[in-house]
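Next up, sample data.

:::
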Amino acid sequence: MGILVLVFFVAGLAALIVGAEILVRGSTRLAFAVGVSPLVIGLTVVAWGTGSPELAVGVGAALNGQPDLTIGNVIGSNIANVLLVLGLAAAVAPLRVSDRLVRIDVPIMIAVSIITWLLALDGTLGRFDGILLFSGIVVYTVMSIRMSRKSRSVILEEYADALDLAVPYHRKLAYCGYIAVGLGLLTLGARWLVDGASQIAQVLGVSELIIGLTIVAIGTSLPEVATSAVASYRGERDIAVGNVVGSNIFNILAVLGATAIIAPGGIQVSPSAMGLDIPVMIAVAVACMPIFYSGKLIDRWEGFLFLWSYVGYLAYLVFKATSHGNAEGFNSVMVLFALPLVAVTLVVITARALWDRRARLRKSEQTEGE
C-alpha cells in the first residue's frame, strides 16, 4: 500500500508538471498571437497557467474535506514562489524589474496577503470571503488587459520580433487544444497528488498543514520554478518576475477564493497558520518591495538571500513536525523569522540604494564642475 501511495503521488506530481508545461506553452503562444506584452503574459497568462496546479489541488482538497492541505498549499506556494522560485531565477541571472511591478503589482500582492489574514481572523474563510477574493482576481485580470491595450502600440514596436499577429485560425485552435489538454492533466494530477499527500501524512503522522506547506507547495510550485528559471536564462526577465508576482496574486484571490466558495462550510484556518505561516507569507511579500525598488534590479546575492531564507523556513517546518513537545516554544522563535527577513532586507537594500544615489549625485556634481 505504501508503494502504491508513492506511485500515485509521484504520478500526480508528474501530471501536474507536464500539464502546466503544456498549458503555459499553449497560453503563451496564443497570447503572443494576439499581441500581449511579456510582462502581462507573465502576470496573467503564465501566472494563471502555473497557478492552475494550486487551484486544482485546492479545489480537490476542499471537496475531500482537507482544509489544512488547501490553506497550506496556497501559503506554502506563495512563500516558495518568492524565496525559492525568484531566488533561483535571480541566481541564474540578475533580474530587471519593471516600473509597473513596483508601482502596481507588488503593492497588490502585499495588500491581498494582508487582506487574507484579516478575513481569516475569525478562523474561517467563508463563502462571502471567497466571493470577495475571487472578485478580486477578475478585477485584476481585466485591469491588466486594459492597461496592456492602452500601451499596445508600444508593445507592437518593442516586441515586433516575438509577436506573430498573422497566426492562422487553425493554429490558434491548436493552442486552445494545448490549453485543454493541460487542464485535463492538471485535474487528474491534482486528484492523485491530494490523495497521495493525505495518505503520506497519515503514514508519517505529520499534519496535512505541514504536508501542504512543504511537499505539495514545492510540487505545485515546480512549474513556476521551471518557467522563471528558463525565462531568466533566455533573457525574458519580465516573464520570470511577472510569473512569480502574478502567481502569488492568483493563488490568494483565485485559489483561496474558489476553494472557499466551493468547500462546504468554507476553509477552516488553523491557529498555527494564523500565528506563523500567513505572517511569513506577508513578510516575504513585503520584502519584495525594497528589493524590487532599489535599482529596479534583483542581484544574484539577493537571490541567494531568498534561497537561504527558504532553507531556514523549511528546516523549521521539519523540526516542528518531528519535535512535538517543544513545538509551541519554537513557534515563538520562528515568528521572529519574518521580522529579521524584512528588517535585514530593508536595511541592506535601503542602505545600498542611498549609497548608490549619493555616488551618482557626487559624480554628477563633479561632471558639472568640470
Summary: The longest strand covers residues 95-96. The CA atoms of residues 295 and 353 lie 7 Å apart. The chain has a mean pLDDT of 75.
